[in-house]
Amino acid sequence: MEEVSAKVLLFATLREKYGVKELYVKCDGTVRNLIENAASTIGESFFNDVYDDSVEKVRDNLIFLINGRNIRDIKGKVKIKESDEIAIFPPVAGG
Amino acid sequence: MNGGKMFGGFVGKILKVDLTTKTINTEPINEKIAKNYLGGKGYATYLLYQYLKEYESEGITPKDINALDPENVLIFATGPGTGILGFPSSGRYHVMALKSPLTGSIGSANSGGEWGPFLKFSGFDAIVIQGASDTPVYLEVVNGNAEIRDAKDLWGKNTFDTTRILKKKVEGKNTSVTCIGPAGENMVYMACIVNDEHRAAGRTGLGAVMGSKKLKAIVVSGTGKVPVAEPERFEELSKRFLDAMKKNPVTGEGLPTYGTAVLVNIINKSGVFPYRNWQTGVNPDAESISGETLAEKYLVKRRACWGCTIGCGRVTSVKSGPFQILYSEGPEYETVWALGSSTAVKDLDAIVKANHYCDELGMDPISLGSTIAAAMELNEKGYVPAEELQGLDLKFGNAAALVEAVWRTAYKTGFGKYLALGSRKLCELYGHPELSMSVKGLEMPAYEPRGVKGMGLNYATANRGGCHVTGYTIAPEIAGIPEKIDPLTTEGKAKWVKIFQDFTCVVNSTVNCLFDTFALSAKDYTEILSAVTGWNFSEEEILKIGERIYNLERVILNKFGFNGKDDTLPSRLLKEPMPEGPAKGHVVELEKMKEEYYKLRGWVNGTPTPEKLKELGIRL
Taking 50 as the threshold, does the pLDDT of residue A85 lie above it? Predict the structure, then answer.
């Protein structure tokens, strides 16, 4: 698989926990690999915080945006492309 | 016990004050009305409709009623949840008026703090204000007694001073003040009512209605208790629901840690954070005004409303510089957006200060910020003669002009007298009504419907005008609560909007905080309302109550001449495609959704059919 690089942005409690606002992550284009590689840089627990390996998808209670679109709204197989922006939010709402 | 009958949740009395004749009466809570409309917004809407009918029988038609004339009726109302410790987030009250100066239709607003519960402890579920005084007065309600007192010495004072003076005068446990500032006295159309110094019944200009009646404040104090019909059942439910709220990631962690401004980055990254008077939905400087920045640089501590376990309120300070303020509260998400993103001001110091002035002078920051943003666009496009601005450099991004505009509006000085009219009248005045980002005259809050279609339908059909909390579809469309739906599609949105609008009526009539619905369902509300009142509601009946309230409110709108033509959005959102971001190219396909919505509602041209009204038991 072709290697791509994506910008990953963390917000709220995730930003606080890992002390990182943004990082560039190389991956094979799959969401799992992106999160796995991010975890190897910022902390192993990040993988479990974001990805549910038992059902092989991003945890439903997170807001996981790929170029502004929630991963749960994207139809078909999700593929990370070169220079994509991934914004990850813990479960928050209000306003 | 309540008036000899067994029902809980109410202390049983409504205080009726006529400021023209200076008479005070009480009337009992009517069990049948309370069963059909609960309290708060529902009971108040019912009463307003009766006043409207009474006026009609006297030959006064709805169009004869001016928002700022003595005929207008103002109601402060609590609900069956208010003031019961253990009832989730029940420290709120609702305010309604027959007519809002901003919209020309029914006025409605809601506030937290302590005032709502303390009104109940003072012995009353609601206060109805009629008429108008010739001279400034305030109302003092202490342990079942009410008196109209002279407020000449208070007139002209800001909301903080007014609150402190009255709290000192009326000493005692559970004392709270709700009042207006100079903006309300000057009848600025977006003036609000401020209680406990930093909590406000913000929307639809109800502070101006209070000002027109020369009613400066209402101070309440008391040691009463609210009866609960089934205490054991209530205790069990309370424990379960408070535990659920604590464990819920939104009510237990997100809101307590970051407050509502945590939404700034989410909404901006979703491409629906209105920027520069809604010219786009992406703000390049959102991070500098975000909840994360607020928590890092400005937050002093949290402040919760009475009985609330969430505690989303922020105590903040600006430590130095031209916008220094050593104690303030907020800003909330909506305020950050209206005073910041809508105006393209990225200096959070200035936004905190402008928000502080809104509390101090008594103005709704959503309508004010939006009106200033509209003025900025009018000015940048060359539609405002320079001499009329009198040195106010209203350009997008100008932080100093933003703060100055807040003062000028409250005192209606210079260009402030035009800003004080709200964005709709301001833009009409300068020949460009299309630049007012409002619905039915009320400025829309911080979600761009070109990228959140359900919110577009909600804004268009919300009874009080451009309002997000009438039907908060951001929960499913953005946050995925209770389930995720795609914000860019129109399918099924009518159903969601109707459910949210109806259920929100239940929440506002209970009266408690909308935020607890992130953790609690309609079924939970049904159970706890049944335990408190002793009336065994079914879930279907509870939702029917919400629908009944929404329809009766719509009947009042219809009487003021509003119908389907008013259920619309600014042309920018219907015709100009979103220029960038994830919603690039999108407009709101409103008509399609509206048709489905009216069908679900049983409405024709924005008007409930006689069959629908009969089904809901509404007798005209």
Answer: yes
A94 within some domain:
no
Report the DSSP beta bridge partners of residue A67: none
Predicted confidence band of residue B164 (pLDDT cuts 50, 70, 90) = very high
Query: What is the total residue count of chain B?
Result: 620
Q: Which residues in chain A are closer than 8 Å to B262, comparing Cβ atoms?
A: 12, 92, 94
What pLDDT does residue A95 have?
75
Q: Note whether B549 and B81 are within 8 A (CB).
A: no
Cβ contacts (< 8 Å) between B474 and chain A: which residues? 93, 95
Among A15, A65, A93, the residue with its CB nearest the CB of B254 is A93
CATH of the domain at A23: 3.10.20.30
Q: What is the dihedral of CA B9, B11, B12, B17, to 10 degrees?
A: -130
Check residue B472 and give its pLDDT. 96
Report how far Cα B367 is from the mean position of its chain's Cα atoms: 11
pLDDT level of residue B481 (50, 70, 90 thresholds): very high
Q: What pLDDT digit, counting tens, does each position of B167-187 carry? A: 999 988 899 999 999 999 999
Whole-Å CA distances, B171 to B44, B161, B164, B174: 29, 16, 11, 9
- Record: contact A65-B270, CB cut-off 8 A: yes
Residues B274 and B438: their CA atoms lie apart, in Å, by 13
The model's pLDDT over B521-542, given as tens digits with 9 standing for 90+, comes to 999 999 999 999 999 999 999 9
Query: Which of A58, A69, A73, A92 should one mutate to test binding to chain B, selecting the residue with the greatest count of B CBs within 10 A?
Result: A92
The token pair at B289 is 């005004």
Is A33 domain-assigned?
yes
Domain that holds residue A75: 4-86
B260 and A94 within 8 Å at the Cβ level: the answer is yes
Report all structural domains of chain B as residue ranges with CATH numbers, in order of start. 13-221 (3.60.9.10), 258-442 (1.10.569.10), 448-615 (1.10.599.10)
pLDDT of residue A2: 87
A93 lies in some domain: no
Q: How many domains would you assign to chain A?
A: 1
Rounded CA separation B211/B183 (Å)? 8
Mean pLDDT of B138-143: 98
- Cβ distance of B249 and A70 shorter than 8 Å: no
Give domain status of residue A69, yes or no.
yes
Q: How far is CA B533 from CA B15, B43, B219, in A?
A: 21, 15, 27
Q: What pLDDT is recorded for position B1? A: 45
- pLDDT, position B6: 61
Name which of B15, B14, B19 is nearest B215 in CA terms.
Answer: B19
Residues 6+ apart with CB under 8 A from B274: B280, B281, B337, B341, B342, B437, B444, B446, B447, B448
**Separation between Cα atoms, residue B248 and residue A61, nearest integer Å:** 10
